[in-house]
Automatic annotation (TrEMBL):
Superkingdom classification of source: Bacteria
Any GO MF annotation of the entry: electron transfer activity
Membrane topology, record value: Multi-pass membrane protein
SUPFAM superfamilies: Transmembrane di-heme cytochromes
InterPro entries xref list: Cyt_b561_bac/Ni-Hgenase, Di-haem_cyt_TM, Hydrogenase_cytochrome, Ni-dep_Hydgase_cyt-B
Originating organism: Thermodesulfitimonas autotrophica
Chain ranges of the Cytochrome b561 bacterial/Ni-hydrogenase domain: 6-208
Compartment(s) of residence: Cell membrane
Regions crossing the membrane: 13-33, 54-75, 123-144, 174-193
Chief place of localization: membrane
Family: Belongs to the HupC/HyaC/HydC family.
GO biological process, one term: respiratory electron transport chain
Gene Ontology CC annotations of this record: plasma membrane
Protein name: [NiFe]-hydrogenase I apoprotein large subunit
Length: 218
């Protein structure tokens, strides 16, 4: 087995920044919609809701910046970071996609092996990226309600025209659960790959290094 640097530093930073910011957004967002901790005493002194909203807002910016850096690295990174790993653009990649999908659906016993993203995983990351875009648009639109004009109202106010407040909140809430469901499946798939492939899948997101047979290097 030989060592292969698969995930470069920007990709690893993106992964952890995304994971931590989504965790913070889910926790604070759920609290904002359904306060599950009641603080006794002077609300102005405790200011728990205010802190939750502040953390939610900062985490949203962290996630947005992480996505912009990842989009840039689609074109500057190594072949494992390329946008082609997320969007199948060749017949070979689509062929691998169907083989991998059959394995996940228990229609094929042999697990296809990949050093980078397998085609099903890559396409699922694209879907999650779109869900995060929906989260960002609806979240900033809800934030823009507090302004009559200015930056936020100019760029996101059009959503307040197309959708009612409660519709935006519902979309924002449901999308959060879809992203969290992806997280559970993603974690399961990572553990499964670690057990079956034994190529350092889980450790690679920290070190960036995976292992492969020399004959499979190209």
């Amino acid at each position: 087995m030989r060592r292969v640097l698969v995930w470069e530093l920007p990709v690893r930073v993106f992964h952890w920044a995304t994971a931590l910011s989504i965790f913070a957004l889910a926790l604070t967002g759920y609290y904002i919609g359904n306060p599950f901790v009641i603080v006794s005493g002077d609300a102005a002194q405790a200011y728990l809701m205010g802190w939750m909203r502040a953390v939610h807002f900062v985490a949203a910016f962290v996630l947005g910046i992480a996505l912009l850096v990842r989009i840039y690295w689609f074109f500057r990174g190594n072949r494992y970071a390329s946008w082609r790993e997320w969007i199948p653009t060749s017949r070979e990649r689509w062929s691998f996609f169907w083989r991998q999908l059959k394995y996940y659906l228990f229609l094929q016993r042999e697990r296809p092996l990949y050093v980078g993203h397998n085609p099903v995983a890559g396409l699922s990351y694209l879907v999650v990226g779109l869900l995060i875009l929906v989260q960002g648009l609806t979240g900033f639109a809800l934030y823009a309600e507090a302004f009559q004009d200015g930056f936020w109202r100019f760029f996101f106010g059009w959503l307040l025209v197309l959708f009612a407040n409660q519709d935006l909140r519902l979309i924002h809430h449901v999308t959060m659960w879809l992203i969290l469901a992806f997280f559970v499946v993603h974690l399961y798939m990572g553990i499964l790959a670690e057990i079956e492939e034994r190529n350092g899948t889980l450790g690679s997101i920290v070190s960036g290094v995976k292992f492969e047979e020399p004959r499979g290097a190209e």
